[in-house]
Structure formats: C-alpha cells, structure tokens
Design goal:
Elements: H1 7-13, H2 22-44, H3 47-54, H4 58-67, H5 70-84, H6 89-125, H7 128-140, H8 146-163, H9 175-199, H10 207-228, H11 239-261, H12 267-273, H13 276-288, H14 295-334
Helix pairs in contact: 2-11, 2-13, 2-14, 3-11, 4-6, 4-10, 4-11, 5-10, 6-8, 6-9, 6-10, 7-9, 7-12, 8-14, 10-11, 12-14, 13-14
Length: 335
Amino acid sequence: MLKYVTAPYKSTVLTSRGDSTRSSAVGWYSRQPLLMAGLGAATISCSAVFVAESGASAVSTAFYRTALALPVLIVLAVIEQRRHGQRPLAQRLRAVLAGLFLAVDLILWAHAIADVGAGVATVLGNLQVLFVAGLAWVLWKERPGKAFAFALPVVMLGVVLVSGLLEKSTASPHPLAGIFFGVGTSIAYAGYLLILRRSSSTSVHVAGPVADATAGSAVAAFAFGLVFGGLGLHPLWPSIGWLTALALLSQTAGWLFIASSLPRLPAAVSSLMLLLQPAASLALAAVILRQQPTLLQILGAVLTCGGALAASLSSTRTAREAAAVSADDELTKAA
C-alpha cells in the first residue's frame, strides 16, 4: 500500500529517530491522521443543520461561512508562521485556488438541497470519493487498495440509506436541476480536497493553508454574489448567529482537523473518511431538529461508519507495517 502513497505520507510516518521509541512513534503518527479526519468529518456534519436554521441564500451562506471564519484562521496562521516560517508563494496560491473550488461546492450544495432535498443532495455531494480516488490514481499514481475497493460499495449503500432515497416520502421539486447541482458539488468538492492536500503536502503548516483557502472562497463567493445576485449583506438575528456557528465550527475547527490529516493519508482514504459526515448529520438532525431517523437510515449510518473505518484502519495498518519495515532497512544499511 505504501508504494502508492505520496512522499509526504512517508515523511510523516517515518521518524528520523533511531532510539527505542521509534516503533511507538510510528504507530502514533500513523493513527493520528485517521483520528483527525474522523473528528473533522464529525465537526463539519453540523453544517447542514446550521444552513437550514440560518435560512440564508446559497451565496450568502457560502460568503458568511468563510468570511466570518477568516479572523480566527488568520490569527492562527500568523502564530503558526512564527513557529514554522513562511510558506512558499506557490503553495499559498494553490490553497487560494482550492478555495475557489470550495466556493463553487458550497453554492451548488445549497442549490441541490433546495431542488432535491437534503437527503438526495447528501448522496450526490458525497460522490466526491469516486472523483478523488480516480483523479489521485491518474495524476499521482495513488492506486486505491483492496480495502477501499471492498468498502466503497458498502459505504455508498449506507449513504443512500441515510439519505432516505428509498423512503416513500422523498419528493423532489426539481429533480434534473438538483442532480446537475449535486454532481457539480461532488466535482468541486473533489477539486477542493485534492488541491488543498497538494498545497500542504510538503509543509507542516495547517492553519495557513486553511486560511488561504477560506480567503479564496470568501472572495469567490462575494464575486458570485455580485455577478449573479443573491448575496444579502445584512443578515439579521438569529440568521447571523447560525452563520457564525457554521463559520467557527465547520469552516474553522472542522477543516483544521481535516487539513491536518490530508497530506498524511492516501487521497482515497481521506475522502472515504469524510463519508462519515452524512451519518453524523443524521444524528444531529435527530437531536437538534427533532427529525427522527428510520430503521433504514440507522442501518445506513452503521454501514457508512463501519465501512469507512474498516477500510481506513486497514489502509493505515498496512502503511504502518510497510513504514516500519522500511525504517528497519534504513537502520540496517546505516549500521
């Protein structure tokens, strides 16, 4: 598995220390990205609830989600820069480009929810795992492992069940437009994940890439609003409160967790972990919005979480074992 993973993953898993703690360090570093990805997916799962409660337009939601997160992210990025130094301009520009894809993703996702409902939009938006795995294989030779191939159909079935697509009460006012927006969401989301991952692949910075991407997204959302309309610059309470919560939890905390894991996991695995979001959203909707899940949705949540975790644990365990063997070989050669 490790031979298909990019160099940044190797440099994170393999430590340069040759003492007796090397094995435990390898294990800790290889598990941490998986934990961060899971925490990130759980944190951004509250996005749909915040969007629904805010009642803001698609463009307004995308703009305020990113603009309100910027002050906190900039402070964190400055602190990080003082500790680790400045990032190359090329990396920063890649992160800004990733933000443009994020703006498109957020706007199209809101439109998909309006046209086909949150359930179907969730399914269509989470097709990003297919695009991420395919593009990472073509562009960077990150061939998905067997665990990913076995888990993908299980996880996608779980996402379909979670969405409520198989329930009789799902009626879509504009199905064709919703499908178009939903597939567009997946493509934009995949572009955002891959470019953000690439922009931080050789850097220890986490807040910096997220801040640059968020700034790019805020500017792009503002431009979309000026050109196509729909941007409300004076949201009232409680709308601005929900948008602030969306910015601080989803855009700030959630994506800091995710960004810390992206360079340290294979693209397909990190993308698969993000499919935990629909299952977590189901639980939050039940608690906050009093939307009780059906038995099929609960089954879907189990399949989604179980499949994603099983594939991710299998992949990182294989990479950890290969990393340990490689480290032993290096120590033997050095001796």
